[in-house]
Write a structure and sequence with these properties.
38% of the residues lie in helices and 14% in strands. By secondary structure, it is of the alpha/beta class.
Length: 416
């Protein structure tokens, strides 16, 4: 007797997550065949030899005997107090432990926060390019992503007038990813103030993904959104995974700021959803105080001669030396988002290019279209490998693009 195929949720067909998708599955197959790959698809510091700071590791070890029970659904009280104190220092209005939610990474909190907000057909303004989990969580919570363009020609910053033109009667929230993944852009204060004004005019929730807040290069600065939002409801997301290189600990948080009366029902909805999943990972929560109020271990990595800085320099130099690549210099975060240009760009398909790099050059990158952009000539790499490894990656990329450019030029001459 044949067993029929088990159906799945239809809306999953709308979800894209190529960071861990088809190309990553093919990479595992190639590794199983004995191939050695350079994998630049995930911002996963531990996979590149980084370790979480020792004082964070020690904080967990010192409290391991206290980690067996469930804790409060919003997180350990002392951890929430540390997060609230950190946000008070930033000027976040009404930052209090009662308005802090700790989750299994920011990823879980993105899902919970959208599930608490959206009714079927509600819209969320998302950046394009975005981190695709935001789009996926909107779709899977029966919402509709509406993308505001962050154009390369504008340094991947949005146009507030274009953003406001997208607001409809169904719009519920504006999402900002600052510093941005995948582009490495940071949002200046004046731009953030204009976005806050849009949210105030249209009564929208502000959702600020600030997981890369301290990963800054050269003279770049980070401007937190919540202090500018004032009494407006604002959710600010942070965590241990990137700045503190502890992805596997799954520790993220969201701080609900603004007038408590305006967001009381929303607070209760998030609390209910948090209770339904019982609680977040407990051991990692004991590292939060040490992370937020202890030694700064990320800045040395982002300064000249620091590892992240020098790998970023290798990326910048490689793109500057290439006639086939253009790069908006990333000033923050852990990624570069180069564009393919010139003869190599004719008929270019980012997914086919990524597959070519994987199959023939043993390099795994992420196609730019995975980040919900309308163009197909970009790709993303992480800045986590050693500088020499990044240089090797781009020598292979240059080789492939040079072949492509030569073939396109030859074809053009033959047609002429």
């Amino acid at each position: 007797m044949s067993i029929p195929n088990l159906p799945t949720r239809e809306r999953l067909s709308e979800v894209r997550y190529e960071i861990r998708g088809e190309l990553a599955r093919r990479a595992r197959e190639l590794e199983g065949q004995g191939r050695t790959l350079i994998k630049l698809n995930i911002g996963n510091p531990g996979a590149f030899g980084f370790r979480a700071p020792e004082h964070l590791q020690r904080a967990i070890a010192d409290h391991i005997a206290s980690t067996d029970p469930y804790t409060h659904q919003q997180g350990l009280p002392q951890a929430r107090e540390s997060i609230a104190a950190f946000h008070k220092q930033r000027g976040t209005p009404n930052a209090s432990p009662e308005r802090v939610f700790i989750g299994n990474g920011v990823s879980e909190l993105i899902d919970i926060s959208l599930r608490a907000l959206l009714n079927p057909g509600d819209e969320v303004l998302l950046p394009s390019p975005d981190y695709p989990l935001w789009s996926a969580a909107t779709i899977l919570n029966d919402g509709r992503p509406v993308y505001y363009r962050c154009e390369p020609a504008n340094g991947f910053l949005p146009d507030p007038d274009q953003m406001e033109a997208l607001v409809s009667s169904r719009t519920r929230a504006i999402v900002l990813i600052n510093p941005n993944n995948p582009t490495g852009a940071t949002y200046p204060r004046a731009l953030l103030e204009r976005i806050v004004a849009i949210a105030a005019k249209h009564h929208l929730l502000l959702m600020a993904d600030e997981i890369y807040d301290s990963i800054l290069y050269d003279d770049a600065t980070f401007e937190p959104l919540a202090p500018l939002a004032g009494d407006l409801p604002c959710l600010s997301f942070g965590g241990l995974s990137k700045v503190h290189r502890a992805c596997g600990w799954r520790v993220g948080w969201a701080v609900l700021s603004g007038d408590p009366l305006a967001s009381g029902d929303y607070h209760h909805a998030m609390d209910l959803l948090g209770a339904l999943r019982l609680c977040a990972n407990v051991p990692g929560q004991f590292a939060i105080d040490a992370a937020l109020h202890g030694a700064d271990t990320i800045t040395p990595l982002c300064r000249s001669e620091g590892r992240l800085y020098e790998t970023r320099r290798a990326l910048i130099d490689a793109c500057a030396a290439s006639e086939h690549l253009e790069l908006v210099t990333p000033v923050a975060a852990l990624y570069g988002f180069p564009a393919v240009v010139g003869d190599a760009a004719h008929g270019f398909d980012d997914h086919a290019f990524a597959l070519d790099m994987l199959e023939n050059e043993d390099v795994l990158i992420v196609p730019g279209s995975s980040f919900n952009v309308p163009y197909r000539n970009h790709f993303r790499v992480t800045l986590l490998p050693q500088p020499d490894e990044m240089r090797e990656v781009f020598s292979r990329i240059e080789r492939v693009l040079a072949r492509r450019a030569h073939a396109n030029a030859t074809r053009r001459v033959a047609v002429a």
